[in-house]
Protein 1
Amino acid sequence: MSDLIAALPMYDWPEARAEVDALWAAMRDRLRAAGIEAPDALCRRNGDMPAVPGGIRDASGAVVAPDPATLPPDEFDLPTLWRHPDLLLAQTCWGPMNETGLRDLVRVVAQPDYSDVPGGAEVFYSSAILMRADDSGAPASDVAPPPDGTARLPLEAMRGRRLAFNEKHSMSGWLALLADLRAAGGDVAMLGGLMATGGHRASMQAVAQGRADVCAVDCRSLALAQRFEPETARLRVAGWTARRLGLPLICARSPGHPVPAIADAVRQALAAGRPAA
């Protein structure tokens, strides 16, 4: 049995779990064909991660994440997952990669394709800016993503509105929107407040239910919501952030990891199936 772990948590909605598992099965089989001991099933909780007594350390010996065995077993701490020394494969986000030093602890092995959803173009994605359809500032119909991938922000409609966002290390939910606002001459100061929700689905629900007024979610999360989240019917796409590099697939920066073989197997699985989980 493999001691390595894998997770595809970023689009692992309960309703899409069978699809995520099927994608992992395709990756796992190709990894095993390459001689890599891939685990049977995905890691989905802290209790699924092997213990690391004393905490997870970087190359200098500094603790960079807690021992998973000390965390609530039924929760899922993604920063700990991403730093686990036994990580064979996981999705992450360029926000944590660039903002928290994660890129120094892992290797990028693949970039999934987003071309199958509006707002995606090969390995790049945009975030949809969502408002309630009955908001006086919302457009009469959904705004299409600009073909050239530039930002299209509803600046006046956003002024004074409360923003729901997943968390401040998120590229799609916070960093991309903040950068595009500043490039357009705006800033968060123009908003009517902030609400951290912990996830894109929760942000969309907050806007739909009137607890917030606007949010930004990546185009694949929006596509999932349009399939599985009834509250989405109450939302309107009011604009888009500029295209940015989508979620990377990573492995631990471990001397024992055959990174080229992992990358080849993962890319083959992505190419054989749909672009991303």
Protein 2
Amino acid sequence: MLIPGSKSITARALFLAAAAEGETRLVQPLRSDDTEAFAEGLRRLGYAVDSSRDDEWVIGGRAGGPPRAEAEVSCRDGATTARFLPALAATGRGSYRFDASEQMRRRPMAPLTDALTALGVKIDFLGEADHHPFALSANGVEGGALTLDASISSQFLTALLLLAPLTRKGLRIDVSDLVSVPYVGITVAMMRSFGIEVDVAGSTYDVRPQAYRPQAYRIEPDASSASYFFAAAALAGGEVTVPGLGSGALQGDLAFVEVLEEMGAHVSITPEGTTVRGGALRGGTYNMRDISDTMPTLAAIAPFAEAPTKIVDVYNTRLKECDRLEACAGNLRRMGITVDTGRDWIEIHPGTPRTAEVETFRDHRIAMAFSVAALRVDGGLTFDDPGCVKKTFPDFHRAFADFAAKLG
């Protein structure tokens, strides 16, 4: 099964390419609403971005910050765009205005905007404080030391790490309560691939001033997108192999297959790829703090397990494109399934789901996750906004339908 490139890796690669003096080629990037918003944001800031080919994008980088001294950037729905590009703009010299969709305007920015303000960047909020829209006045970033609460999202830490080597003095970040730890691992690994030394000691990250190196960089398949196909094979008793996503993968969300294996699926991970074959699902309790983007995938197939499934330590899923924990609970209840929830957990009881309309809340992960459940619902499921998948996987419905047909 061929899965599009990783959204997380594509976004980081676009930042790194823009910050590296010279030309960088990104091989097999993800083309979706989020990544196109990021690429367009770079163009608005004055960077040369050639995305005319699907299999290779070429970025003209500049180590001194955005080429333009003034720009207005629309981040659309993209959290990585909304959080990474202001950090990149801060390294330049000029005035930049950032805005986003109504959905993204509701999502918090305080950990990043507070950090940038502490580093001397002037930010004027044009609406609600610590949210989009805002104006940023940049004169480079001196650097120094920061303390960061990363309990809401690891993206704030990633934005600051990507910024760190571009500061005049470097950056030391002491982090507390970090969620989605593997995503920070992606960031550090990619920074090192682009020539940056990152010192990590416990919860402290230390980066001195350095120069990113341009290069050709290959994007691996998206592990979160692959989770729907892995879950479908586990649920329907079929088999799927995703090449290019194996034991050397950067993405922590590949650990979702370990959850499926604990539930009873058969899993094989090699350097070349990952295979999942279905088996009877047992249920159980799973901590998904570090792989929370796959929480809806597990929630959607949980009713078909032989025992209750409890997913814990996922408070941050309440602060995504929607409150994913309650979105899953509400949709499962409409399907006739008994669900209990708490501040940071959801427990789903076995049952026979009935046909219903899935409320997506314009959230791509809700739509894709419940597409998996539809495989085992008599009469199927309908969706109020199936097109929301374009955020990360525009061709999902066709690809999933083709795959489901092969499952039999």
Protein 3
Amino acid sequence: MYMNIYLKAIILAVCLLLLAGCWNSKELDDLGIVVAVGIDKTEDDQFLLVTQVINPSEIATDAPTTRPPVSIYESTGDSIFEAFRNMTEKSPRKMYLSQLRVLVIGNRLAEEGILPSLDIFYRDHEFRTAFFVTIAKDTGVKDLLKVLTPYEKIPANKLMHSMESVQKSLGSSKGIVIDELIAQILSKGQNPVLPGLLIEGDAEIGTAIENIEKIDAPTQLRVDHLAVMKEDRVIGWLTPDESKGLNYITGDMESTTVSYPCDSEGLVSVEVLRTDSSSKAKFENGTPSISIELELEGNVGELNCPIDLTKAESIETINGDVEKKVKQKMEAAIKAAQEDFGSDILGFGSLIQRKNPDYWKTVEKDWNSHFKELKVEIQVKAQIRRKGNSTQPITIEE
């Protein structure tokens, strides 16, 4: 009998615990949903913090209004944490940070070193780690986050989707989330790259609602190429071809195009649909080298050349031309990393560390100087799978 009483009491206690409300719950009406954050350093060496916050009433309605879909709040402080608290003087709501899409780092901070500034975004429990980290190129973070974008009401969503689209369809840039970035900065065998964001057009016009009321918005946000870092400082930028070459090497190329002129006239464009990159460290007489093998598959996307695709030799010729063009981009990326920047953004040091830990201990403190002399061999194998609906170019008969 007593056992039954005790059992009922335990069950009742458990039910009461399950029925309890959240101790730290917040009403949506009391929160400002932050979707983008910009950080930089001011001239007096304080931290600049800019947040892009959703205006819920403008997002929820389908009726056109003259109010923008987001608001910008700005504050400064001796630390980023302090700047967030100082923002309460301007914002009517508490900043809710779990929906953050993009973190934009300004030029001054990027050149000084970003690792200490990333601590709060990785440490604070309110931040998720799925947001992209980017660099504002040739513009201030506030100017960039103030630009209104067509099609996507929320500019931060536009930036996030654009970075995903560029990586999946073009390969001239790629997104990186904060935990990957921190891991690469702390790694002795690889320096990170960061995608750049820039403003095309007049930044002041981009802040007006008229910017999104035109078919062709005069001011737009664009995903640029990749910023090269040495440890946690930005030291330069890759070109489009160098950015693609880096993504080929690191295995981050999902899809892109390879275009080149014919021997006579016209142009061939190949759609790259799949790549498989493999990099290995080798040692010969105690000297390390890197071997890269890349396999890619693609389709003929456009043909303006007098080439007969029914012939096997024509396909082999296209395969060879694609291999040559892709290899040139990979070589350009290696040359830029070794000669122009002296920064191992390709992760070759990590390969050597895994292959020969004893050798790595002798070079890890001065790896970037050894990286400049590292020999790299590249092999590219291309295979055209489909020719499209036509095996002949469309030409006018004379």
Protein 4
Amino acid sequence: MTGADNKAVPSGDGRTYASVTAAYWAFTLTDGALRMLVLLHFHQLGFTPLDIASLFLLYEAMGVITNFLGGWIGARFGLRITLFAGLAVQIAALLMLSAMDPAWTVFFSVGYVMVAQALSGVAKDLTKMSSKSAVKLVVASEEDGLLFRWVAVLTGSKNALKGVGFLLGGVMLEGLGFTHALYAMAGMLAVVLAAALLTIKADLGRSKSKIGKRDLFAKTREINFLSAARIFLFASRDVWFVVGVPIFLYDQLSWSFDRVGLFMAVWVVGYGIVQALVPRFLRRTRDAGTAARSAVFWGGVLALLPALIAAGLTPGWMPAGFGAGDAPAIILVGGLLLFGVVFAVNSALHSYLIVAYSDADKVALNVGFYYMANAVGRFAGTLLSGLIYQLAGLMATLWVSAAMVLLAVVLTLPLRAPSRDRAAVTQT
């Protein structure tokens, strides 16, 4: 960071924020690894795509509840409490999964794993809400896009680490097996939780004013539209990402577990790196007004990509010169990598906007509400990923993805600069 940047960040809060972020990074590794472990392990056991999607439904559903109430808890009691709770609950979820018996019936196994995944969903969103809310509290100035850069770096690094977690999950499943991989991750998080208890003392995010029930629902116009757009943006990714593509690569292209994990890792790591770099090539995005206009443009570009991939996979649309055996892999992998780049730009813009639209005193409430919408989108995308793939195949999930991005773009059209930005423009 530059000297100017350092002046905008109180040193004590900066150290606290660094500890919060380090804990979140460690958690993110286990979250990505756990997703690949569950997906590939239960596919290997013979679970159908819809069964596998069901394993993640409570994970996403609990994210809706956790973000809704977690923002209120963070605003009332401080983000330190929500972070510690998230780490502890994830450890419990990993240990619960490690106790699963392969001899159990499919019905009981699905129910048991859904409960464990529900705990993991609570843990994920508690830690995410804590870390993303904290950035608003330690960046004292939005001058020269400082807030945009910090939010982009945090979100991008988190997604890059989640991608590493995908690779880690595939490798651990091959090398350690399901149960021992879970033990290893639980042990690592226990060490991280102990370190966080010793280093994080400040109660970041506790509101100075009284938080009532009405504050859970009373949001500004911009936050409501942005949250609605977020639902469809993330549903457009998860409708193919959660079940369809990994199983297609394994079943139809005969990829190994670690190769599937590697691709998913490369996709998410690349997505995270691009996300962190977005402020560098969108240099004119210095406030919420310009970011909102950029979100509309990049959303339109994103909507084209899944449609083009689906068209390319349709028989008779194959590009000339491709061999029949190579074409699906080239079109799918190349297209999804490009989708990841453009999706990263959209996600970075949206993540900045929710923080920019929030007052510091209520940032945990607004971020919690926004990521509740994010969880609704992931829930819908997860359910549709298994259902549509099982009924109609991968191409259908991609067409649905394109339609969802278009809906997200429509919902970003009413966004504008918050009142303080509009006033500043008027005065200049």
